[in-house]
Amino acid sequence: MQIAGRTFLVSGGSSGLGAACVAEFARAGANVVICDVSERGADLQRELGDAVCFVKTDVTDGAQVERAVATAAERFGGLHAAINCAGVATAERVIGREGPLPLERFSKVIAVNLIGTFNVIRLAAAKMLERPAEPGEDRGVIVCTASVAAYDGQIGQAAYSASKGGVVGMTLPIAREFAQHQIRVVSIAPGIFDTPMLAGLPEQARESLGKQVPFPSRLGKPAEYAALARHIVENQMLNGEVIRLDGAIRMAPR
Ligand SMILES: NC(=O)c1ccc[n+]([C@@H]2O[C@H](COP(=O)([O-])OP(=O)(O)OC[C@H]3O[C@@H](n4cnc5c(N)ncnc54)[C@H](O)[C@@H]3O)[C@@H](O)[C@H]2O)c1
Description:
The chain has helices spanning 16-27, 40-48, 62-76, 103-128, 158-178, 196-199, 203-211, 222-234, and strands at 7-11, 31-36, 52-56, 81-84, 95-96, 99-100, 140-145, 183-190, 242-245. By secondary structure, the protein is of the alpha/beta class. It has a single domain (7-244), classed as 3-Layer(aba) Sandwich (Rossmann fold), CATH 3.40.50.
């Protein structure tokens, strides 16, 4: 799918990997709707101009995502692509110092990372379907963000790994279902990227994480994630796949 003149919805677009996608697609001439609970999306809108529109959205809420999708159609005339970057990371053992992990903390991670991604997929795809497409043409492209933690989750990542494993698991069945609609679905499983999600860690810990990457031995840059998201949109043969973007890292147990 070509990017210029098309409309993209980016969940989690206020920060990190999502914000890099907003900048990448806006620079390439797309219209972008940022869906995020964080108001920083409004700053991006001011910075990037009229082609970018921030709609404060909690991805776990059906009505709020519906409103964001409707905004894409009202303001820019339709929806062509959805990039799912909204997510939360936690590190908590199943049995911690204070006993078993409270169930609501596990549920919260699943709600945002997995159910929130599904919520955006179902509503974005329904909007994409309102638009006719020529045979063989992409009607829509959906990119989801999993994580290498879906495959090699560390101690403390039960909830996070389960949520990302869910994203991996639904990629192929949804791509298969949407094939008849000419909508592609591809996921990216990033390794360790230098985003605000990691900013809470001390510099030493961030450096040590970077050194665990075989090559290049550093943290990934958000622009590298955005470059892959862009390639997925532009390369029509990519569909139903999860692509690791990780410098060959395989996470150790801790
Ligand atoms: N940074 C990494 O190393 C890394 C590695 C693998 C996967 N990921 C995944 O990449 C995605 C982006 O992460 P990031 O590193 O850019 O983190 P980030 O914290 O910089 O960005 C995440 C964004 O999601 C938003 N968000 C959180 N809950 C939301 C909700 N309920 N509704 C709408 N927006 C919500 C946050 O406000 C934030 O702007 C996440 O899904 C994360 O799990 C990140």
